[in-house]
UniProtKB/TrEMBL annotation:
Compositionally biased intervals (Acidic residues): 356-366
Region feature (Disordered): 333-366
Annotated protein name in UniProt: Cytochrome b561
UniProt cross-references to CDD domains, sorted A to Z: Cyt_b561_FRRS1_like
Residue span(s) of domain Cytochrome b561: 119-327
Subcellular location: Membrane
Length: 366
């Protein structure tokens, strides 16, 4: 119980520290591989992460970023002559190299009035012209919002990971920590629920990781990517440990060294992984907020309301976990439960089992 309260405290502190972490996924070195790369603006706002969908960097690339990557991050004549954002101006014209002669280290032909090659600029003249034609004003914000839509793979990734680590796996952990008494202890009901819930959570985690890993080329470029990989690997390790747990001694017997090590690793590591996962979810939320920087709230309310709802559930689970660790008494049904784990004849021939007992605070969280 003390361990649970300690972990909860660290989780709260970790979340409070997130606002201090730099989450820029752009690479400043790339600015010097394109003309005026450090002087790009979009609608009057500095945009240092030229190839990204958010000014300070994001997991998503804008059209110019996609073309730049396809050109192996090299300013070629072909890339210069392309019109990545479809605004009628070539990338070279927007970046001050209209003749496509610039090479790294040179001074571009033009160093002023640099526009963004991957996002359409909107001017007052454009708005006035559009309003005169169809009676509506195509604002800069609307144009930007249309371009900044989360790709479907990222939506799937967010949904899977928030369901897995933000909801399902913590619930499974609570079943192992606090639901061993009352009606849940009989016939190992708590354990059956624990295993089933954790398997579902791990499945969501695998789906979320695979869809992100196969759609992002530059892995491990920011804290979220690195921590996400660590959490995913730790989750799989937890699942494996849950299925290969050593024999549990009966009452009056001493635990083997292997069982003792397993309990410390499985319980402690499980708590740590869940805390890291929660921290990483907040990091991911911050990346999404950076992605939609400058977009009116009414245009992003749906996704943020959904994410806030999941985060609220996480906070509630954190509170429930703490309260249960403090107030809920666990129950030891003794020999019967040991017999269920180790075999009805009480021998020691089973080293892995589909059903566990009510070992205090056991947690097979992924």
């Amino acid at each position: 119980m003390m361990m649970t309260r300690t972990v909860t405290t660290f989780a709260t502190v970790g979340v409070l520290l997130l606002e201090k972490l730099p989450l820029v996924s752009s690479n400043p070195a790339y600015q010097f591989l394109i003309p005026n790369g450090d002087s790009v603006f979009h609608n009057g706002e500095p945009w240092p992460a030229v190839g990204h969908a958010a000014p300070q960097g994001s997991p998503i690339f804008n059209p110019f970023g996609v073309d730049f990557r396809a050109a192996t991050r090299t300013w070629t004549v072909e890339l210069c002559q392309m019109d990545s954002d479809g605004d009628g101006l070539t990338n070279g014209e927007e970046l001050g190299d209209p003749d496509c002669v610039w090479t790294p280290g040179d001074v571009p032909t033009r160093t002023t009035n640099i526009s963004h090659p991957g996002l359409v600029e909107s001017t007052e003249e454009d708005d006035a012209e559009a309003e005169a034609v169809d009676g509506s004003s195509q604002t800069t914000t609307a144009a930007a919002t249309e371009q900044l839509e989360l790709p479907s793979w990222l939506v799937v990734h967010i949904a899977c990971m928030m369901l897995s680590w933000g909801l399902v796996l913590p619930v499974g952990a609570i079943m192992a920590i606090s639901f061993r008494g009352a009606g849940f202890a009989k016939n190992g009901v708590w354990f059956q629920l624990h295993v089933g819930i954790q398997i579902l959570g791990v499945a969501f985690s695998i789906a979320g990781f695979v869809v992100a890993f196969t759609n992002i080329v530059d892995h491990f470029k920011d804290v979220h990517h690195v921590m996400g990989t660590v959490v995913f690997a730790g989750g799989l390790a937890q699942a494996v440990m849950g299925f290969i747990r050593p024999y549990k001694p009966k009452k009056g017997e001493s635990a083997t060294a292997m069982r003792t090590v397993w309990e410390y690793c499985h319980k402690g590591f499980g708590r740590i992984i869940i805390v890291l996962a929660w921290v990483n979810i907040f990091l991911g939320v911050k990346l999404v907020k950076n992605f939609f920087a400058g977009v009116p709230k009414e245009n992003t309310s749906t996704i943020f309301n959904g994410m806030n709802a999941i985060l609220g559930i996480q906070a509630a689970l954190c509170l429930v976990l703490t309260l249960m660790a403090i107030f809920v008494k666990t129950k030891d049904d003794g020999q019967d439960q040991n017999d269920k784990e180790n075999g009805s004849d009480g021998d020691m021939k089973h080293t892995t089992r589909p059903q566990d007992d009510d070992d205090d605070d056991e947690q097979a969280s992924a």
